[in-house]
Amino acid sequence: MRSIRPLLAAAAAVAALTLTATACGPTEENAGDKPSVPASPSTGDKITIPDDLKDRLKEHGIDLDKWRNGEWKNWDRDKWLREAKDYVNPIIEDLWDPDRMRDAQRPDKPVEEGDISGDEGVTDPTPARVRAKAVPAPYHSNVPEAGKVFFDGPEGSMVCSATVVKDPANPGKSNMVWTAGHCVHAGKKGGWYRNIAFVPSYNDRSLPTAKLQEATREQVAPYGVWWGDWAQTSEQWISEGAATGGQGAPYDFAVIHVTPEKGGTGKSLEETVGSALPVDFNAPAVSKIASMEATGYPAGPPFDGQKMYQCKDKPGRLSVKADQPTMHRIGCTMTGGSSGGGWVAAGKDGKPALVSNTSIGPVTAGWLAGPRLGAEAKGIYDEVSKKFAGR
Asked: How wide is the angle at C-alpha 204 spanned by C-alphas 104 and 161, nearest 5°?
């Protein structure tokens, strides 16, 4: 048992980092292009905006029409909504077109060697590298719950990974997605990201990147684009989360409630993709878990973010800070962009259950770490479920 001193990478933000979240960050200049004609869930030609959304925007001096026509690009501190109750995400129809989705990534940047302080009592030796394996296409036939999260930050468009999870209040009809906290909120130095959307089975047929440049939206997003109409992450992530040093990483989880961008057929996300995973908030000690399987869309080299991969390994323990919960850790070569992707293990009934999500990892791409899901995570999950009970 020992502390670890790996070479680490910048992914979620453009900065020299010592330990970073594994989201993938801003890219080309087109990330700031003016969005196409906005819309939101509607009946016929009449746009319907929920009153609570109008009120929350109005409280912060934000005009909805201006927001959808480009005001969302204003990242002044006064416009960057921060508190848990302030989450807003008006639909901007067709903003996430195939080109913008394909280009929402950034190569990792190596930085100086940093230190992860480890509590030797709970930090296990660094796991052996486990090579990520490509998920066979079509992805929907193998991991129907998995997909990509797209969002905008001050420096451009970014990507993460995510998983459709069950909703206790709406059995069989869940619209809930599990991801990392840093995929929805910037942590202690920022606020909620914008234009958050989930695309299940992104690039379902595993088309080569060259062919994706000519792909239709239906090929890239065969099960639609689902906008986050609500999101919650831990208060610990909001108050402590940072792109450096792993601060807040043990609480780096989030739940997004989604709605179809174009109204859809009335089916829920779970009904649309045909699956949703239960979440296990009382997973056994790592010594009793035979293996965990992580899924994601790694975008840092040698990956390009366009294809789905998985790693399977017996988990170990990682302590980032002695006074915070110990994290799960597995060997895995996935890189930035895999953040938020679900970690699955056998639940109490022996069936697959989500037990963690990718949070942090080094530039050497030798391992990934994810939070242990306990009372804080269950509280967020239950709150989102109750908020949309019967809806």
From this structure: 45
